[in-house]
Amino acid sequence: MEIRKVALLGAGAIGGYMVWGMQNSLKDNLVTVAEGTRAERLRKEGMEINGEHYDLHVQSAAEASDADLLIVAVKYTGLKDAMADIVRIAGRNSGHTVSGNERTTVLSLLNGIDSEELIAEQIGWEPIVNAYMTIVSHRTGNEIEIYHPEGPDGLWYGDRNTPEKTEACEVLEQFFATTRLHTGFVPDILKRQWTKFIRNIAYNLPQAVLGTGLGAYSDSEHALWYSMKLEEEGRKVAAAYGIEIGPLPRGSYRYTPATRYSTLQDLDAKRPTEIDMFCGVLMKKAAEKGIQVPAAECTYHIIKALEEKNEGRFDYE
What we know:
Elements: E1 6-9, H1 13-26, E2 30-33, H2 36-45, E3 47-49, E4 52-54, E5 57-59, E6 69-72, H3 79-90, E7 92-93, E8 96-97, E9 105-108, H4 115-123, E10 130-134, E11 137-140, E12 143-146, E13 154-158, H5 167-176, E14 183-185, H6 189-210, H7 216-219, H8 221-240, H9 262-268, H10 275-288, H11 294-310
Parallel strand pairs: 1-2, 1-6, 2-5, 3-12, 6-9, 13-14
Antiparallel strand pairs: 3-4, 7-8, 10-13, 11-12
Helix pairs in contact: 3-4, 6-8, 6-9, 6-11, 10-11
């Protein structure tokens, strides 16, 4: 097994980090998957990443079906529409090839804990290596600012069934060593994904409801209470699935007090948020175990209402 061609689904902030990290080494063997007017726009505009312009090599899913690695970096709200392309590139279903390259490994870099489950329903678990991202970035149009891309944040991966480094993980490790990406194998990938999921819910969502930067958790006992209540519910649900997670670090945050995480960035830009991936999934997982999560449920409906406000639903004048 060797990774020589990488297909990228999604040209947002995570996609930008992938382009920044891999294009210099892969050249045209890093392809961005798109069709129609979107493909034309991406070819014409490329991406601006930390002030540097990158031209994109754009292919259709059919053209990208010989990729050795498929990186899914779409928004959660776009995963359903992207599923047909995922099947074309890496398609397997119940062990039978649907289409695509049988050697294709799939990394889903969406936030949350269920994107791999949704993809596996279409192509099976065999090609999927669980992964998650830890970067902070900001996107405006085709301009992406990635904070400290060469720092400790990056891409983390592992096998959901074993703490051992499988052949697929070893191949990924060898490939990533040829890129600028900061990556690492982790033996406890599911615990890591759940921890990041709960951290997103506890740190990301209260500031989105309040419309304020990260510093609110240090400067307001009420904002901190809200954050800790969401954390408590997330940890309780994780425990019900056999994943014990300790308290999140408090009192000292890695980023500036003005930092606005992704949900608040989406509301600021009047984009749909990923609240279904956060509280929506937590509520679903909780219901399956008979657990009540009232703070998460309330947060879900507040952010849904804020999305409606951005859409103009409450413009009564």
